[in-house]
Amino acid sequence: MPVVPDLPLFTETADNEFFGLPMEMARTIRLTGEAIAGHHCRVRLPYNKAFTNSRGDMHGGMIATLFDAGLSAACRAHDPRKYGVVTIDLTIHFMAPAPGDMICHAVCERRGKSISFARGEIRNDAGELLGMATGTFKLLERGVAQP
């Protein structure tokens, strides 16, 4: 069972943003922040042959990228535009191949003044569990963007 409840879709974002923050990497790999609220988020990474291994499954590095983006977003879910996040630690358990789209469901289990702890799952569209992860993240209040 996913760790994220049903959440309203997050639609207030531009093509080069990820949950309201500029992130060119998200646009490049088509990472989509679908929902975010409170302590939870849901992020999708569509299948892309350019990011597959020799078997045609999504490469483990892409799975790690999805976990990093999803868990860190859950840590700033209380105010997505106010905070950026730096990853301190990320532990991943790969459980099954990912031959299609992947959806990360993540929750921030504890949010301190600057350090947060999150966990998440990646599932396919059929709901099959592909991996689990935990992570530690540092919240950074965002200032005025520099050119």
TrEMBL record:
Signal sequence segment: none
Family: Belongs to the thioesterase PaaI family.
PANTHER family: ACYL-COENZYME A THIOESTERASE 13 (PTHR21660:SF1), THIOESTERASE SUPERFAMILY MEMBER-RELATED (PTHR21660)
Keywords assigned: Hydrolase
A Pfam entry, by short name: 4HBT
Thioesterase domain residues: 56-129
Molecular function GO labels: fatty acyl-CoA hydrolase activity
Record protein name field: Thioesterase domain-containing protein
Transmembrane segments: none
